[in-house]
Design brief:
The complex is a heterodimer of chains A (165) and B (793). Chain A has five helices and five strands, in the order ββαβββαααα. Chain A is of the alpha+beta class and 165 residues long. In chain A, a hairpin with a 2-residue loop joins β3 (49-52) and β4. The longest helix of chain A is centred in the last third of the chain and has 15 residues, at 142-156. In chain A, 53% of the residues are buried. Chain B is an alpha+beta fold and 793 residues long. Helix content of chain B is 27%, strand content 23%. In chain B, strands 3-5-1-12-9-10-11 form a seven-stranded mixed beta sheet, sandwiched between helices. Chain B has a five-stranded mixed beta sheet with strand order 7-15-14-13-8, with helices on both faces. A four-stranded mixed beta sheet of chain B has the order 18-26-27-28, sandwiched between helices. In chain B, α10 (375-393) packs parallel to α19 (745-761) and α15 (511-523) runs parallel beside α16 (551-577). The chains are: A alpha+beta (165), B alpha+beta (793). Chains A and B meet through α2, α3, α4 and α5 of A and α1 and α18 of B.
Amino acid sequence: MPQVSLTVNGRSHTAEIEGRTLLVELLRENMGLTGTHVGCDTSQCGACVVHVDGESVKSCTMLAIQANGAAVTTIEGIAESDGTLHPMQAMFREHHALQCGFCTPGMVMSAIDLVQMHPEGLTEDQIRHGLEGNLCRCTGYHNIVKAIAAAWPIMHGKELPLAAE
Amino acid sequence: MGFEGIGASVRRKEDHRFLSGRGSYTDDINRPGQLYAVIRRADRPHAKILGIDTAAASAAPGVSAVYTGAELEADGVGGVPCGWQVHSKDGSPMAEPPHPVLAIGKVRHVGDPVAVVIAATRQQAKNAAELLVIDYEDLPAIAAVRDAVAAGAPLVHDDVPGNVCFDWHIGDKAIVDAAFAQAAHVVELDLTNNRLVPNAMEPRAAIGDFDRSSGEFTLYTTSQNPHVIRLLMGAFVLHIPEHKLRVVAPDVGGGFGSKIYHYAEEAIVTWAAGKLHRPVKWTCDRSEAFMSDAHGRDHSSKAAMALDAQGKFLALRVSTLANMGAYLSTFAPAIPTYLSATLLAGVYTTPAIYAEVKAVFTHTVPVDAYRGAGRPESAYLLERLVDVIAHDTGLDRVAIRRLNFIPRDAFPYQTPVALNYDSGDYQATLKSALAAADWDGFPARRQAAAARGKLRGIGISTYVEACGIAPSKLVGQLGARAGLYEVANIRVHPTGSVTVLTGTHSHGQGHETTFAQLVSDQLGIPIDQVDVVHGDTAKIPFGMGTYGSRSLAVGGSAMVKAMDKVIAKGKKIAAHLMEASVEDIEFKDGRFSVAGTDKSKALAEISLAAYVPHNYPIEELEPGLDETAFYDPKNFTFPGGCHICEVEIDRDTGTVTVANMVAVDDVGRVINPMIVEGQVQGGLAQGIGQALMENAVYDSEAQLVTGSFMDYQMPRAHDFPPMITSTENTLCTHNPLGSKGVGETGAIGCPPAVINAVVDALRDYGVRHLDMPATPQKIWSIIQANQPRMAAE
């Protein structure tokens, strides 16, 4: 069986896996990192989003061996080591941006990438379109959008510029 | 520490684990030695099973067992039971055909489970399931209710003639007929309530486990009501006595009704675990969920309102065909009847109502409650009908509603269709919503949109619904095969912290916070000293779970009752310790004090005395401070309100954009406004989804066309505007909290407001009604087919 070596949340990990093993299966089944969820089978829902070398990826759509040598970050790996929540996690809680919690890990990982990719600022419309790949059935997205807008200034250390539109 | 009592937007206790990836959903649980089950399902809607060749699958690598309906039947496994029996007009009970756990003889819908393969890994089980050879003889099939009742339609069950499960009615037909005969106007409307797939983000999953030393079975399952599953599966399907069956519903990723029901897969993994003496896990694929989770809605109705010359409603007549799917799901018969037709008075004084419901079997996935469960169907019917009345008579949409509202001083109000509303103020919610939506400013916005080449419309809906279904005696008379009380156990520990055990279940509603807040408020202890436990039949007393927005109104009331018992006992202990009379003991802010003195004891001092009863009235009082209460509601609760939607339509594409969505709801006493607002927003999103996007489509041969997220349009973030929500509350008069419930209001009030807005936007195109979902294709076709009437008309 092929071997895969990667870093997950800062720890190196090596496993022998079937070639068809998906990254999400490696994380959930092999490593016990069950924070990353599987909500569909057509790459639509985004519950499985993780960061691979800093970019958000649907881990149900990537083979584990494709992540060989990569640095993977999951929802378990974004808080401080003392348990202090990442600003995005904190703002999700502050703005009641989660209900059942199932889409939340993928939503948070996508949202972090979205904010990081837009140091120039983010409009509400950009946030809504930026969440195209993540489904939530509970919240109506209203509070998720608020939470992301609230996390932007904390992550970038400056005020969110007013929309130019 | 800030204010954390009733009325505070306390941030949720459960969030930390969900945000850190430490939730424990069923598929996150793995048991030692676990095997994996994969189910082979029918890929066709109706066929005889001539044979199943399991040889290749059984011999495949890693396979422990292959089971078909024959093995389960031979072992005495019963069918999936129905929890509600409805009787037809003539008094005969509904047809209740067998619903085998794995198909026997025939398959009756795409997705009907035929065989299960159990193997060491999920992939091995999947591979082996592909090797099963099932020999089918295809039979004709029907998916739509009107096709199912047509003469000569193929039968879903050979012994159910005409595919009619029951033919039920409510109300006084003679009075209604007489009112119609004398009416100044009669307005008729035919409409369908589109079929939906609930699609909670967590797919269903189940793990069966068997302990050989104790002989005890454990089922971990994605359920909204673990005790109901234990009762139904233990008593009717697997014949496991309840003391040998534990059902755990851990963190559950959304339900919306679809996780109320007892499903075949729960029985399969539990039974197989007993056979194989190994844990057996099944996790649903999303595509599998589309054809195995109970669907929602799918009603086809004819409605007619009789009016006097001024527009007062005189009588309402409704005839509905309700799709049950191929088998009866747990509460399916109650949805179109006691949870829908009984709401046909709505917020209006219509004095006479007659409704008939024919429930029909089709070759489709079973249909049951989905967020709102019957009330969205009646609200949609009524609120569309009122707008069509305005359209046909020329009366103003708001004025006609005001004219017919049940007035604020008329409560309690007895409707002609059984329900007795305890409280409400429909003028107040209407007034607030009109202001929040700037109703009067709409013509200017419409004009501005027209200048941009867009069609703009505004729509209103004023609704009432019924939550906290009750009382048990009444629902028993109506056919429920269960009680509908709730239970709470308040366990004050020796050092004063509290564990609350509730029979309700949280799958997104935030109970761990709301209930902790309630207990913190009533017992005067910090919220971090309170933990709420739910979802495990080995821990909690027998409770009924969460659906129908019942948890606070019914479960919270049980908590109040149990806390009253704790306080009453605490007063006796305090009286003893402070050498005072019980009548002189007051309890406030967590302290028992002797009236008129400065003597007092904290709850923790009383609880310590209760568990270390050295100085204790042991002759009169048992030790401990641990009280349980069961609360059987006296009546339903009746949330209501006003939703207003504003849309803009692109003429070139037919695309509808929701420009504004306002909801003003009356939900009774609010414990946590932040959570209430979140519930409304989520409900509105599902309401807009139903109105504009979502539709479970079967083709003419009953094949499911929308079988994945690729084909079924789930609402996404950019489909919505910010939502403007508020409450305008009157208190429930018959429960101790005054709370009514909020989980479903959005999904109930919203769809007619959206469609009323779409029809308003298309008013120059001669549109009187269009069915949901209002897709771009549907609207583009209307625009293409109709020349706009001149504005002068």
